[in-house]
């Protein structure tokens, strides 16, 4: 599952300007953790 999340994150980051990466990285990390928890607890 983690591979899918990494690909999603890479796809999102590649579409964003560099200045937005600093602000969005923590948000993407939080989203990744939340999504992992949801997938583990259907």
Report on this structure:
With 42 residues, this protein is mainly alpha-helical. The protein has one domain (2-40). Helices cover 86% and strands 0% of the residues. The chain has 2 helices and no strands. The chain has helices spanning 2-14, 18-40. The radius of gyration is 11 Å and the shape is flat. The mean pLDDT is 66.
Précis, in short:
With 42 residues, this protein is mainly alpha-helical.
Q: Helices and strands in order, then pairings?
A:
Layout: H1 2-14, H2 18-40
Helix pairs in contact: 1-2
Ranges with pLDDT <50 over ≥5 residues? none
Order of helices and strands: HH
Beta strands, count: 0
Distance separating the two termini: 14 Å
Summarize model confidence as the mean pLDDT.
Answer: 66
- The geometry reads as flat
State the domain count.
Answer: 1
Task: Kindly list the characteristics that best describe this protein.
single chain; 42 residues; mainly alpha; 2 helices; 0% strand; flat
